[in-house]
From TrEMBL:
SUPFAM superfamilies: DNA breaking-rejoining enzymes, lambda integrase-like, N-terminal domain. It comes from Skermanella cutis. The active site is at R169, K192, H260, R263, H286, Y295. Site-specific tyrosine recombinase, which acts by catalyzing the cutting and rejoining of the recombining DNA molecules. The XerC-XerD complex is essential to convert dimers of the bacterial chromosome into monomers to permit their segregation at cell division. It also contributes to the segregational stability of plasmids. It comes from the Bacteria. This is Tyrosine recombinase XerC. It is found in: Cytoplasm. Keywords: Cell cycle, Cell division, Chromosome partition, Cytoplasm, DNA integration, DNA recombination, DNA-binding. Residues 126-308 form the Tyr recombinase domain. Residues 14-105 form the Core-binding (CB) domain. Belongs to the 'phage' integrase family. XerC subfamily. Transmembrane segments: none annotated. Forms a cyclic heterotetrameric complex composed of two molecules of XerC and two molecules of XerD.
Length: 321
């Protein structure tokens, strides 16, 4: 048996080990998935193979994977649920396993008919939770005012202004280098799958970035990170999320006020102001319009809330004695 170091944490049959290595290369080089996706898919596959090892009493080879039955996959999902994995985690794990099995089929290594028959755990219908326009506007100066160090406050304000003003994902913003800082009214962003898109940059975003760069105590070379932590290294998403937690606590905002909520707010506020849905799709970097269409439901919910609160015919009549 061979053990692919640093990938699967237990012994596998040699043909499975070779297949995993080739699959990971395909994901990384051809599909150009993010590092997080590659790590998550590999961990999910590791858990599935480890389950099969215990389930059948030996590490599986490709022939065993080909012969895996529908009940084997269901038993694995049931074990995950019993171990406390949530619905979203189980659905993502199944997606990773299906990806591996489909790749095995397309590459001619083996075929398994059962994997296509598994029903994914049903995910709850969760709509994005944007901030109100007033809360988003108030958050940006507060991000600067309540920081422990003035330059950190300017950094946080610049980051959150960029997320809200351009609709970036947190990883997209933190992956920017100093040379990517916009000098005019556009910014080239590298999103999921290394796909690039161009987004407009408002003057308020450029001003916030310039203010932060001028105050930053560290040299910011062109090929180095734009956003840095207190030790000068590239700022991590966990730190930005922690900063947001502290700000929302001080402002009394709900737990849904996260860095990613600023991206939701960008899209929802544009839609409410009459922007075209396909234009918003391009700005967000969504591959599918269906992903962007979620914001129409958010906007409808908000409009109904305004109607219920403001329209005299929508107000509840007091109960009669």
């Amino acid at each position: 048996m061979a053990r692919p170091a640093g990938v699967i944490g237990f012994s596998c049959a040699e043909d499975v080990t070779a297949a995993i290595a080739a699959w990971r290369r395909w994901l990384e080089m051809e599909k150009r998935v993010s590092r997080h996706t590659l790590t998550a898919y590999t961990a999910d596959l590791s858990g599935f193979l480890e389950f099969l090892t215990g389930y059948h009493g030996r590490p599986p080879a490709l022939n065993d994977l080909s012969a895996a039955r529908l009940m084997d996959f269901r038993a694995w999902l049931a074990r995950q649920a019993a171990d406390g994995l949530g619905t979203a985690s189980r659905a993502r794990a199944l997606s990773g396993i299906r990806n591996f099995f489909r790749w095995l089929d397309r590459s001619g290594r083996m075929h398994n008919a059962a994997v296509g028959l598994i029903r994914a755990p049903k995910l709850p219908d969760r709509l994005p939770k944007p901030l109100t326009v007033a809360d988003a506007a108030a958050l940006l100066p507060n991000a600067e005012a309540w920081a422990n160090q003035p330059w950190v406050g300017k950094r946080d304000r610049a980051l959150f202004t960029l997320l809200y003003g351009c609709g970036l994902r947190i990883d997209e913003a933190l992956s920017l280098d100093r040379r990517d800082m916009p000098a005019d009214d556009t910014l080239v962003v590298t999103g999921k799958g290394s796909k690039q898109r161009m987004v407009p940059v408002l003057p308020v975003v450029r001003d916030a970035l310039a203010d932060y760069v001028a105050a930053c105590p560290y040299a910011l070379p062109a090929d180095g990170p734009l956003f840095v932590g207190v030790r000068g290294g590239r700022l991590r998403a966990a730190i930005a999320q922690k900063q947001m937690r502290e700000i929302r606590h001080l402002m009394g905002l709900p737990d849904t006020a996260t860095p990613h909520a600023l991206r939701h707010s960008f899209a929802t506020h544009l839609l409410a102001d009459g922007s075209d849905l396909r234009a918003i799709q391009d700005l967000l970097g969504h591959a599918s319009l269906s992903s962007t269409q979620r914001y129409t439901e958010v906007d409808a919910d908000q409009m109904l809330g305004v109607y219920d609160n403001a329209h005299p015919r929508a107000r509840r009549k007091p109960a009669e004695d």
